[in-house]
Amino acid sequence: MPVPFEKEECPSKLPDQITEDELLDMAELFRLFGDSTRIKILYDLTCGEKSVTEICDDLEMNQSAISHQLKILRTSKLIKGRREGKSILYSLADDHVMTIIAMGKEHVEE
After folding, report:
1. CB count, 10 Å around CB of 59?
2. How confident is the model over 2-60, as pLDDT tens digits?
3. pLDDT value at residue 17
4. Do residues 102 and 33 touch, judged by C-beta distance below 8 A?
5. Long-range contacts, stretch 98-103, CB < 8 angstroms, 24+ apart
6. Residue 90, strand partner residues
7. CB within 8 Å of 21: residues ≥ 6 apart
8. Which H or E run includes 85?
9. Contacts of 59 (CB under 8 A, 6+ apart)
10. Cβ-Cβ contacts under 8 Å for 39 (sequence gap 6 or more)
11. How far apart are CA 64 and CA 9, in angstroms?
């Protein structure tokens, strides 16, 4: 498995490589992944776009709980929604979200 830096190139001081604002943004991103319902929703959306009803059925949870978490994920730009008639279809915002989910799954399986 590749490492980010060779030993000689490894930064000795983290602040030289990343700003405080970037660290705070990363902490907020990882906080969003700290809720099991949000992880379930994100994992469910790895199969493609779905309506709230489909997500509720897949996760066997009520619409109120799912809608609350969808709002958080959408505000955080981890998912996006597109209107189709009276429904909104949700999907992952970009490939980075899929990568984070896949890497997390791989890590816990080790």
Report:
1. 16
2. 445 555 566 555 556 888 999 999 999 999 999 999 999 999 999 999 999 999 999 99
3. 81
4. no
5. 98/46, 100/33, 101/39, 101/42, 101/43, 101/46
6. 50, 81
7. none
8. none
9. 37, 40, 41, 44, 66
10. 33, 101, 104
11. 49
Q: Which two tokens stand for residue 82?
A: 């597109």
* Cα–Cα distance, 51 to 29 (Å, whole number): 24
Residue 1: band (very low, low, confident or very high) from pLDDT cuts 50, 70, 90: very low
Q: Which two tokens stand for residue 65?
A: 């709980």
pTM of the predicted model as reported, rounded to 2 decimal places: 0.81
User: Which residues pair with residue 82 across a beta bridge?
Assistant: 89
> With 70 as the cut, is the pLDDT of residue 101 above it?
yes
> Between the CA atoms of 41, 44, 47 and 48, what dihedral angle is there, to the nearest 10 degrees?
-30
Amino acid at 23: L
Amino acid at the residue 106: E
Averaged pLDDT for residues 70-80: 97
CA–CA dist 22, 15 (Å, integer): 10
Please state whether beta strands 79-84 and 87-92 pair in parallel, antiparallel, or not at all (unpaired).
antiparallel
